């Protein structure tokens, strides 16, 4: 295992990992605290749903453009600036929680924070690629980032519940604001971040160039479209999990918590497993992990007891823990250095936007049938997607000129030669270690 932690010896990856993990933890705490705030003050479902749309779905539409604007600014300026803005946003939300509640203002601040969070993750992923690709440690680094993400996602919700119960929503939001200030300080004093050495472009030109790269590179396009469909299918069941637990499994609130914790534990297990299997071809990991999620959903559709459903959830969560990071790694290994933040940002935006579509479809399926119907449709859809990936696998591996090779070994597909960004050398990998 020692070699799998080799990225920690490459500066400044350790600080990037710490900032990424703290950012995810703060995001998880903030979402839970704000959802509780909105529901407690309005005592209605519609405003709570509006908050999730404002904080999760709409930012996905804004973040790619914001990333294109900021990814040509020195990271020691752009990332700390983003985190300071997040700290200001959460301070304002804490003041609202302490005083007069204004729903439109909370929704607007949630929208701003959501866009800042996605952009921060995208810039950090781009920086990690710039630091670790020369050392051929990108897969190991992504695996460690994924463990940080998994632990933060699971622990963040629990921490939020503890803070809200012990010190209240407002104080929890103040603590969250302080965490973002801490991240800003960490990055501001970090040396060795990848430098930006390209001619400045208007953000619209950079955004357009990034979108052309994604649409005209067939392998990148395949991954993005496939993951968008997968995310819709994965999230069909999210809004009805509580109904599934209480009505289908006939369990209690505690049982519902156990069911969610089981999936979260599986994510952590999958993140560790990825460290052991990362040398496998990325597409093979994507296919196997996606299939595990589909099989788990079909199993949950037929499970009769909480114990069986929890065990199945661990398996599905493990697939979940491998799938996302395998997709990101495959995408990064096919993307030139200058495009890293924009393309990963596009994937992050899909990760924020597609669940909204899944939620709507899942709710409709439950209305037409039952929670088990939603799980069955989702599982069957995921396995059909896997079948499609198996059919396209030979084309994918030919397109990546060897599939499983490390970043830096891949040759760019010929289709890239058709791209003509408006400013000269936008296609050339122009980032380098500072």
Structure description:
With 434 residues, the chain is an all-alpha fold. The protein is 76% helix and 1% strand. The protein has 15 helices and two strands. It has a two-stranded antiparallel sheet. Helix 1 (13-42) packs antiparallel against helix 2 (45-57) and helix 2 runs parallel beside helix 5. The longest helix has 30 residues, at 13-42. It is globular, with a radius of gyration of 21 Å. The two termini are 29 Å apart. Mean pLDDT is 81; it is low at 401-434.
Q: How far from one another are the termini?
A: 29 Å
Radius of gyration: 21 Å
Name the quaternary structure: single chain
SSE class: mainly alpha
Strand order of the largest sheet: 1-2
Query: Which residues form runs of ≥5 with pLDDT under 50?
Result: 401-434
- What does the average pLDDT come to? 81
Helix content: over 70%
Strand content of the residues, in percent? Answer: under 5%
Shape: globular
Number of strands: 2
Give the secondary structure arrangement, pairings included.
Elements: H1 13-42, H2 45-57, H3 59-70, H4 75-98, H5 103-132, H6 138-167, H7 169-188, E1 194-195, H8 203-216, H9 218-234, H10 241-248, H11 253-277, H12 282-302, H13 306-333, H14 340-368, H15 371-399, E2 432-433
Antiparallel strand pairs: 1-2
Helix pairs in contact: 1-2, 1-4, 1-5, 1-6, 1-7, 2-5, 3-5, 3-8, 3-14, 4-5, 4-7, 5-14, 6-7, 6-11, 6-13, 8-9, 9-14, 9-15, 10-11, 11-13, 12-13, 12-15, 14-15
């Amino acid at each position: 295992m020692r070699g799998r932690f080799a990225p920690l010896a490459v500066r400044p990856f350790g600080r990037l990992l710490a900032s990424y993990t703290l950012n995810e933890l703060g995001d998880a705490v903030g979402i839970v605290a704000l959802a509780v705030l909105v529901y407690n003050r309005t005592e209605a479902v519609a405003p709570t749903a509006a908050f999730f749309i404002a904080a999760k779905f709409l930012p996905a539409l804004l973040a790619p453009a914001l990333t294109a604007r900021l990814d040509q600014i020195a990271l020691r300026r752009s990332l700390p600036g983003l985190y300071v803005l997040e700290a200001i946003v959460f301070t304002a939300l804490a003041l609202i929680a302490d005083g007069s509640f204004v729903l439109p203002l909370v929704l607007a601040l949630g929208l701003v924070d959501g866009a800042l969070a996605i952009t921060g993750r995208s810039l950090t992923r781009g920086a990690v690629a710039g630091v670790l690709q020369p050392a051929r440690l990108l897969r190991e680094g992504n695996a460690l980032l994924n463990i940080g993400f998994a632990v933060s996602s699971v622990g963040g919700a629990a921490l939020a519940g503890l803070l809200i119960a012990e010190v209240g929503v407002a104080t929890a939001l103040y603590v969250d604001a302080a965490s973002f200030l801490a991240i800003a300080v960490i990055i501001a004093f970090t040396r060795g971040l990848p430098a930006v050495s390209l001619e400045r472009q208007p953000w619209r030109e950079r955004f357009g160039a990034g979108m052309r790269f994604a649409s005209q590179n067939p392998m990148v396009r395949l991954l993005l479209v496939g993951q968008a469909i997968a995310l819709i299918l994965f999230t069909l069941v999210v809004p009805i999990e509580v109904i599934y637990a209480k009505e289908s499994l006939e369990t209690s609130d505690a049982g519902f918590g156990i069911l969610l914790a089981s999936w979260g534990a599986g994510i952590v297990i999958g993140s560790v497993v990825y460290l052991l299997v990362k040398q496998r071809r990325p597409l093979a990991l994507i296919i196997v992990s996606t299939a595990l999620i589909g099989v788990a959903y079909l199993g949950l559709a037929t499970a009769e007891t909480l114990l069986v459903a929890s065990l199945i959830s661990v398996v599905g969560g493990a697939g979940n823990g491998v799938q996302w990071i395998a997709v990101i790694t495959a995408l990064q290994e096919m993307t030139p250095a200058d495009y890293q933040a924009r393309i990963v940002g596009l994937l992050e935006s899909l990760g924020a936007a597609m669940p909204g579509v899944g939620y709507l479809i899942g709710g409709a399926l439950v209305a037409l049938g039952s929670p088990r119907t939603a799980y069955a449709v989702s599982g069957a859809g995921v396995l059909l997607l896997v079948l499609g990936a198996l059919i396209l696998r030979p084309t994918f591996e030919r397109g990546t000129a060897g599939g499983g090779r490390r970043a830096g070994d891949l040759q760019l597909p010929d289709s890239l030669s058709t791209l003509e960004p408006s400013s000269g050398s936008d296609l050339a990998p122009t980032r380098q270690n500072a």
